Amino acid sequence: MRIRLLGPIEVESADGPLDVGPRQRRAVLAALAVDAGTPVSIDTLTERVWGPAAPEAPRSALYAHVARLRRALAQADDGSGRTIGLGRHGDGYVLDVERQQVDLHRLNRLIDTGRAATRINDEKRVAALREAMDLWRGDPLATLSSDWANRVRRSVASQLISLAGAWGAEELRLGSPEAVAERLARILGSYPLAEPLVSLQMRALCAMGRTPEALQYYVDTRAQVVEQFGAEPGPELRNLHVAILRGELDEPYPGNVGPVTTPIRHVPRQLPADIARFSGRHDDLAPVMNWLKPASTTDSAPVVSIYGTAGVGKSTLAIHAAHKLTSRYPDGQLYIALRGTSVDAEPLTPVDALARLLRTLGVSMSCDQEQVDEAAALFRSVVAGRRLLLVLDNAVDAAQVRPLLPSGAGCGTLVTSRQPLAGLSDVRQLRVGPLTIPDAIALLSHWVGAERVAAEPEAATAIAEWCECLPLALRIVGARLVARPGWPLAELRDRLADERRRLDNLEFDGVGLRASMAGSYDRLSGSPDRSERAIAEAFKLLGTSPMTELSRSTAARVLARSEAHTERILERLVDAQLLETSTPGSYRMGELLRLYARERFAGPETEMTGEPSDKEETSGSRLA
C-alpha cells in the first residue's frame, strides 16, 4: 500500500487505486500523511486544509471528512491484511501508517541512501536515485492551493531538483543521455530556471547528436534569467555554452568512466493505428507514395495535401500511406490533429501545434501566441538533418499549416483538409472522392462479414448507394449492423431509403455524418466575415431545391441573386466541399448534403425529429 503526495494525491492498495473522495478530503489526507505516525492537532489540520478560508464550523467539517476518510482507508490492504488506521489522539488525529509507505518520506530515505553510498557501490547509489526519481509524478500535492500546500511544494521542489541533478549526472556518467533528455525535458517545463538541470540537459542532447536543441535551451534560459533577474546565467552554464559552440565538448559528462556507446536517438512513432479494413484507393495511394520521397539535398522537402468532402476518408488514406512510408523516414513519424473542422473544439493555433511537436522532440517552448515565427524557426532548427514524416490531420487552411512545415530536405509532410491548400507553395494536391461501388461493398463486407453481404447482394449495393459510397457512412452502417446481428440488410436499406430517417440511421456510438458535415458548414456560419455567413445561408437555401443538379440560372432563382453573384457563391461552396462541379456552369449537391442543408434551413427541431417544420413547408412553397 502506498500514499502518493509527489503529484496528484492518491492511495494505492494491493487491489489498485482507492477512491478517497473529493479535493478537500484529499487535503486532509495529505495534511496527516506528511506527519505520518505523528499526531496532528485539529487547529493545525484546519490551517493546512483551509488556511484563512476556513468554513464557519471547521471542526464539524473536519470531523465529517475524517469519518469518511477513515471508512475509505479501512478498505486499503497492503497485501498482508494490515489496513491504514486513522485514530483520534488528544486534540487531533494520527495517521497510523509506516512512514516509508508515504512517497514523500520514501523519497527522503532514498536520497539519503544515494548520498551515503560510496563510489565503490555504484549500483546501490544509482538504484536508489532511479527509484527516487520514479516516485516523482508531477507537482507535489497537485490540486491543493492552500498556503501550507504551497510552502510544502516549494520545499519539496528544492529536494526534487537536487535529486534530478544527482540522478542526471549518474545517468550521463553511465552513458544514458536519452533517458536524461526525455525526463529533464518534462521537469524543465515546470522549473525552466533550474540552471544545473539545464546544463545536464544540454550535455545529454549533445551526446545524442542534437546540438541545435542544446544551444536553444541556453538561448531560452538566458532570455528568462535576464528578463526576471536582470542578470546573466551562472558561469557553469555560460562556459558550457561556449564549449558547445567551439565544438570542445568531447564527452557527455566530466568524469566519464570507460567507453560510452553512442545512444540511439529517440524516434517518435506517433501515427494512429493503421486501419485493418482499408479498401480500394489504389489510384489515390500510388501518387501519395510517389510524391513523398525524401528530397535530395538540393530540393525542398515534399508536401502532399489530401483534400475532399466530409466523410470521404482523407485521414484514413493519409494514415495508411504514412504507415507504408515509415521505412523512408527512419527518424520518426509525427502526427498532430489540427482540429480544423471539429465541432466541439477550436482549431489549434500554429503556436500550440508547434509547442506540441517540439515537446515530442524533447524541446520545451515558451513562446507567446504572437511569436509564431520564432517558434517555427526553432522547430525547423530541431528537425534539421533528420528524416521525419509529419502528418498534419484536419487542417483549417494554409495559414495554419505554413509555420509547421519543416525545411529539412530529408523530411516530408502529409496534410489533410476539407479544401485545397492553394496558399501553400510547391505542394502536391490530391482530391479524394467517394469509393467505387465494388470497393464500398468490400468495405461493408469487412464490417458485417462477407457471408452476410453475399446473402443479400442487392441490399448491400443499395446501402452503398444510399451512403453515397462515403467510407464514414459505410463504417457507421457497418457498426449498426454488427450491433444488430438479427437484422437483414434489407431492413437498414429501407430505413436509409426514407430520407426523413436517413441521417438518423447514419449515427452510431457518438459518430455521425451530421457532425462531420457540420464542420464545413459551421466554419462559414460562425465566421466573423459577413460574406462567409451569407454563403452558409445560401447553402441552406440551395438544399430546399428538389434538384440535385443546378445550373447558374436555376441557382440564381433559388437564391434571388444575379447570375454573376450566384456564381461567386457557388464557387465558394465548391471550395468548401459543400458543392461539386463537373463542368463549367453546372453544380451538384449530394443527397446527404442536401438533407443536411434542409435540416439546417428548417431549424433544430427538424434535426431532432426529421419532420419538416412550418417554416420549411412555407419556404418550400414560396421557392417553388
TrEMBL record:
Tell me which stretches of the chain form a coiled coil.
none
Q: Boundaries of each OmpR/PhoB-type domain copy? A: 1-97
Q: Which UniProt keywords apply?
A: DNA-binding, Transcription, Transcription regulation
Extract the ranges annotated as region (Disordered): 602-624
**Compositionally skewed regions (Basic and acidic residues) per UniProt:** 612-624
UniProt GO BP: phosphorelay signal transduction system; regulation of DNA-templated transcription
Task: Name the InterPro entries for this protein.
Answer: AfsR-DnrI-RedD_regulator, BTAD, NB-ARC, OmpR/PhoB-type_DNA-bd, P-loop_NTPase, Sig_transdc_resp-reg_C-effctor, TPR-like_helical_dom_sf, WH-like_DNA-bd_sf
Question: Which SMART domains does the protein's record reference?
Answer: BTAD, Trans_reg_C
Gene3D superfamilies, per this entry? Answer: P-loop containing nucleotide triphosphate hydrolases, Tetratricopeptide repeat domain, Winged helix-like DNA-binding domain superfamily/Winged helix DNA-binding domain
UniProt xrefs under CDD domains = BTAD
The signal sequence is none
Q: Name one GO molecular function term.
A: ADP binding
Q: Which SUPFAM superfamilies match?
A: C-terminal effector domain of the bipartite response regulators, P-loop containing nucleoside triphosphate hydrolases, TPR-like
Q: Which residues bind DNA?
A: 1-97
The UniProt similarity line reads: Belongs to the AfsR/DnrI/RedD regulatory family.
Protein name as catalogued: OmpR/PhoB-type domain-containing protein
State the organism of origin.
Verrucosispora sioxanthis
